[in-house]
Design a protein that fits this description.
Blueprint lengths: L15 H19 L4 E4 L3 H9 L9 E4 L12 H12 L2 E3 L10 H8 L2 H10 L4 E7 L6 H6 L6 H6 L4 E3 L2 E3 L27 E5 L6 H7 L1
Parallel strand pairs: 1-2, 1-4, 2-3, 4-7
Antiparallel strand pairs: 4-5, 5-6
Amino acid sequence: LERAIIIPTPSDPDDVAVMVGQAAANYFAQLLAATDMRGVGTAWGLTLREMVRFMPASRNPDLCISSVVGGLTRGIAINTFDIASDLARQLGAECAYMAAPVYVESKSARDAILREESFKQIFQRISKSDLVFVSIGDLTDRSLTMRYGLPPDISVKSLLDAGAVGDILSQFIDRNGRPIKHQINDRVVGMSLKSLDDVPRVVATAGGVPKATAIAAAL
C-alpha cells in the first residue's frame, strides 16, 4: 500500500461516491502531470463515473485509456464502455474497449473468447498499463453489481455461501482477499486479479460503511 487518501465522511451516504470520485480525479491529475503514462486501464462503477466527471480537461495524445473488464448488457452510465470513452475524451487520449459482456454463460465460453486473436491483443495491451483504476463492490442492496451486474442464474445467497464479501474487477473475494470457489469467477471476461500484481500502480476507489469489510479484504 503506497498511499491512502482519506476523505471526510459526508452527512449523506449517497455523497460518498461523489467525494471519493473527486479525490480520485485529483490524484489522477497529479499523476498525469508528474509521470509519463502511456496506458491507463479502468473498470466500472459509480465512484469511477464520478472520477471522470471531476477530471480536468487536458490533451494527452500518447495516452490510451482501456477498459479492463467487459461491460454490462444494460446501457447505464456506469458501464465500463462509457467510463473508458468519456475519460479518454476528457483527457484528449485514445480509447480501447473490451467489447464483450462482463459475464458469459460458462467457463468454456469465456475461454473461447480469450482464444480469439483480437482478445489476445487486448490483453497484451492492458498488461502494459502503467495504472489501473478499480472499484471495490460489496454484497448489500446498495451494490450496483448486485442490482445490475449478476447473471440471472447467479444468486447473492450462493456468493455469500461461498464466503464472498465483495468483488474487484467483477471477481468475488473472501474476507482474506482470496478469490472464492464459485463458477462466477470463471465466467468473467476481463483482467484477472493475479495480473494486477504486474501493474506498477493500482488505484482502488471505494468508501462507505457498507464496503468496510470488502475494502479490508481487498487490501
